[in-house]
Amino acid sequence: MTEEQRRSAVTKAAHEAFVELGFGKTTTAVIAAKAKVSKRAIYEFFSDRTELFAAVICEHRHLILDLPRPDGEELPVLDALVKIFRLDIDDEAELGREAILNLIVRESVQFPELSDYLYENEILRSREELVDWLQGQERNNRMIVEDPLICAGMLMDIVFGALLPRRRLKHRPDRAHRTVEIKKRLEIFLRGTQTT
Question: How far apart are CA 155 and CA 35, in angstroms?
Fold first, then answer.
């Protein structure tokens, strides 16, 4: 394997292990076995498990938000939000997003230092990128945003609150139905921001 192939095998194996076992139970030995490399090979690329966890999140963060948006994009605001929050992805990508969101939420609660690391090293900048987008929409007179930081938080709560239910559901909601529901929530939010 080339160096790039080994690194890719390590991050892929780490992703599988972190999703399956969690950060606490994932060892370099487990990752090495899954990647079919030596433990030493892992340390050629990553100084520790935290850095490896961050690399896994970084590699999959495109599943969380599609930001920044292309320059000059003139989609209606609702359509842009559908794209930003990846509500138009296929079933396979949806499963990948669900896994990465659950991983971030679960591990951030159990290991707050992971969350700190992700934000301090700007691996996760979802809220900040959304704030930038909202400010751009306001500059272009496409919406009125009283407080971009609060609006970004509200939008994330609207979407991710629906994607990550806080209780076990007896029946998993139909993906299409959930997407329609999220779009309705976004429409209500946008009426409150006086979009143009």
Answer: 38
Q: Taking the domain 67-192, which CATH number applies?
A: 1.10.357
102 touches 164 (CB < 8 A): yes
R_g of the chain computed on alpha carbons:
19
**Spatial contact of 10 and 52, defined as CB atoms under 8 Å apart:** yes
Q: What is the pTM of this model?
A: 0.83
Q: How far is CA 128 from CA 54, 81, 93, 138, 156, in A?
A: 18, 15, 23, 15, 11
- Give me the residue spans of the domains in the chain: 67-192
Tens digits of per-residue pLDDT, 135-175?
Answer: 999 999 999 998 999 999 999 999 998 887 655 555 656 77
CA–CA separation, 148 and 140 (whole Å): 14
